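The following block was generated as part of the benchmark described in Methods. Ligand: pyridoxal-5'-phosphate.
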Amino acid sequence: MSTDSPPIPAPRLGEPYLLTPGPLSTAWSVKQAMLRDWGSWDDDFRAMTADLRRGLLALIGGNADFDCVPIQGSGTFAVEAMLGSFIPRDGKVLVLANGAYGQRMVQTLAYLGRDHLVIDKGDYLPPRGPEVAAALAADPAITDVVVVHCETSSGILNPIAEIARAVEAAGRRLLIDSMSAFGALPLDPGEITYEAFVSSANKCIEGVPGFGFVIARKTALVRAEGNSHSLSLDIHAQWATMNKTGQWRFTPPTHVVAAFLEALRLHAAEGGVVGRGARYARNRDQLVAGMRALGFETLLGQRWLSPIIVTFFCPEDPAFSFSEFYRRMKDKGFIIYPGKLTVVDSFRLGCIGQLDTEVMRAVVSAAKDCLSEMGVQSARPPAAALAEREKLTQ
Ligand SMILES: *Cc1c(COP(=O)(O)O)cnc(C)c1O
């Protein structure tokens, strides 16, 4: 996997490429794996569930201190399940927020009635180890710290190892939303100490949407008994039932599980986390270089750019309109993603899914054509956007 991307076939049936961070473009064989029905109670499906759990644990090195618990629903359901199951009812949480997904965890904790404190870094600054250490030293009541691995709202890759060291040194527990990073970026518990993390079927493993999963220390799973506020989102109960019967507690997304096993097979064939992460990084490099050559600028400095998704400023040129750009890109076969920033107009392009550098070259060339069709002279962002970015990099 050291040379260029593996060949990615064009999507069939005229479907556009999804430059979005999940749902994303999946392989044909992943879609094909859904073309039969399974009885959820049957041995064949129980074996599939066991394979899925084993396959995911293998991605953190098969560490025997951890177990994997899949849970029905989108990623947010799994985040809520993790927070509600592992944070003690009388615990206190430090949330490290720098975007929409960190804010969503704050909102979830409010729903759950868990006491919490927030370090809010705004839209696109990373939380750093020393400020986490200081916050933990200042408040001995904090039991748990939660953080987003890659904040998909800006694309920033948070310094997870540095944060984990600060949390461990202060003797607290770390819970990670690794939704958009796991499978492409390493999360080996031998290197990064955490209690649990969560991800979902339709991000870097490249399955279709329908379930999330928690990977947690077995000691945490044992401790979680009776803690959850929710029947359907109780990770301990799902774990205990799965270990006892091999079954999910309520109707499992059978076709999604079948598709996911094929996605895991392709992930392994690509060289696992290292191979997948390398392809995404090549996608990003191709994309960013091409867009910069057109005059676009990235929100983030090189250091914080993730290989998952990249935020670009909208051009200042009055001939540019995002909705028009979106429609024209879609006509050319690419679904792009609006921005999620509060201060400046932006849009996002994902690097994950069944995309390679050839596709990224085509994306850039389509963007170039869209600009000229719209009569946009320059893709340069407004001076205010660049000034904002300047402040960040100080
Ligand atoms: C995708 C994502 C989620 C979950 O979103 P859903 O829409 O519920 O699947 C949570 N956190 C991050 C960082 C994500 O990228």
